[in-house]
Amino acid sequence: MTRLRRSAAAALGATALAFVLAPPPAQAMPTPEPAGAKAECIELEPKGAADARGGERSQGKDHRDVSLRQQRAIERRTNAILKAEGVTASETATLSATIPVYVHVMLDRNGRGNVTAGQISDQIAVLNKTFSGGESSAAANTGFTFTLAGTDRYYNNNWHYDRQSTKYRSQTRQGGANALNIWLVEFDYLGIATFPWDYNRNPGIDGIRVHYDSLPGGSIANYNLGETATHEAGHWFGLYHTFQGGCTATNDEVADTPAQGSATNGCPEGRDSCSLPGFDPIHNYMDYSYDSCYNQFTADQSTRSSQMFTAYRS
Ligand SMILES: [Ca+2]
Ligand SMILES: [Ca+2]
Ligand SMILES: [Zn+2]
């Protein structure tokens, strides 16, 4: 992993500052992540306008690799939990819940990454609009709404650059399994998410890490309308990429998202990367299209999110 632009910051990273809960030890390179890192879905930050949300270089590597065998095991486990709890399909189809959101602004010692309260409020509004189906008549209302439960700010160069993320998340995370924690950092990714079925094993790191400049008003071209957080929250609710598994009938375990051979870049209307029925779901929040191209979760994604929430987060 080469992150040369961070080397200067790393040299300064040992100094504890006012809002640091526990000063980290000096180190020149990011700490290798322990086991928890494997439980995440990672989107690479695009390096240029021509790059996709995940970047062409990232395909097959940009997130936790859930093998087909693991995917099957997760489905079996989820179905067994729902069956044991006696949850019916109609109950999950009509589930609604309010998600408390804790936003952790991870600044560097000079205040870099200082998103405004207005941007955070706008980000919460984007989550509410996108999860309620507010961007398209074809979009599902998932029944999930979001309220800002707290904002905190830390001044720590290591944390700002997402170093020692297992440690900083464990030290700053708030709320229970149903609380969405968003850490705003600066890294080579647009975002990284944990999945709901990993919560019990790794509760301290549960949540999403999002590039601070992807918030509404941020500076990352084509990815600054706040829909990276929507995408990452989708994973947090248990959704896969629409291109998970490629051109297979099962692919993302969602019936009403046409199978997709690879991630989308930009907003290519009529893209059809897979001979199975249907055009690629380029407008789906779980693809890699531009923020301006995104406009929907589907009804079956909504149902899956509710099932996962019921099984693992409620
Ligand atoms: Ca599908
Ligand atoms: Ca097709
Ligand atoms: Zn993703």
What would the keywords be for this entry?
314 residues; alpha/beta; Collagenase (Catalytic Domain); 6-stranded mixed beta sheet; 8 helices; 25% helix; binds calcium ion; binds zinc ion
Bound compounds, each kind once, are: calcium ion, zinc ion
Question: How are helices and strands ordered from N to C?
Answer: HEHHEHEHHEEEHH
- Largest sheet descriptor: 6 strands, mixed
| Tally of discrete structural domains | 1
Oligomerization category of the chains in this entry? single chain
Radius of gyration equals 19 Å
Number of helices: 8
**Order of strands side by side in the largest beta sheet?**
1-5-6-4-2-3
End-to-end Cα distance: 37 Å
pLDDT < 50 runs, ≥5 residues: 1-38, 46-62
In helices, the fraction of residues equals 25-40%
Stated plainly, the CATH topology is called Collagenase (Catalytic Domain)
DSSP strand content: 5-15%
CATH architecture: 3-Layer(aba) Sandwich
Highest CATH level, the class: Alpha Beta
